[in-house]
Amino acid sequence: MFIKFNTLNNLLDKFQQRPYLNICSNIQGMNMSSAKAKCVDGEACRVRVIHLDRVERALRETVSGKELNRLSSIYKVLGDPSRLKIVMALRNVEMCVCDLAAFLGLTESAISHQLRRFKDLALVKSRRDGQVIYYALDDEHVAELLNVGLAHVTE
């Protein structure tokens, strides 16, 4: 069950209704290495404890719903291997639709459709040179996102 807590008091009110949870406001006073707090099979703890300082920090650092939706859209778009190949191809060189279609073996129409989605999310930008439109990654953040993900999977 997912519950959204706007304030720490709201959090306390919700969990006071659940007697099976312990609320610990002073972590320094607890011996977290005790057998009660050790995890079983590395997945679940034997004791349900709410660490208020950690929850409060997470609440302070919460990202807005609008930002979460936008970030989710970016990851959804990058979650498709064909689309990911397009942006990976644009990491170091700008390319036109014809170049990308030849590189991926897809139709120019399919490439154009994907590039429109990328532009809507500010992942790619375009530059006109005469009758040819070249595409490149929008900024260094996009390249960094791709490089960090690639480094993670190749470790």
Describe this structure in words.
This protein has 155 residues and is of the alpha+beta class. The protein has two domains: 8-60, no CATH class; 65-154, Winged helix-like DNA-binding domain superfamily/Winged helix DNA-binding domain (Arc Repressor Mutant, subunit A), CATH 1.10.10.10. 50% of the residues lie in helices and 15% in strands. It is built from seven helices and seven strands; from the N terminus they run H-E-E-E-E-H-H-H-E-H-H-E-E-H. The strands form three sheets. It has a three-stranded antiparallel beta sheet. Strands 1-4 form a two-stranded parallel ribbon. The longest helix is centred in the C-terminal third of the chain and has 15 residues, at 140-154. The radius of gyration is 24 Å and the shape is elongated. It starts with 7 loop residues before the first helix and ends with a helix.
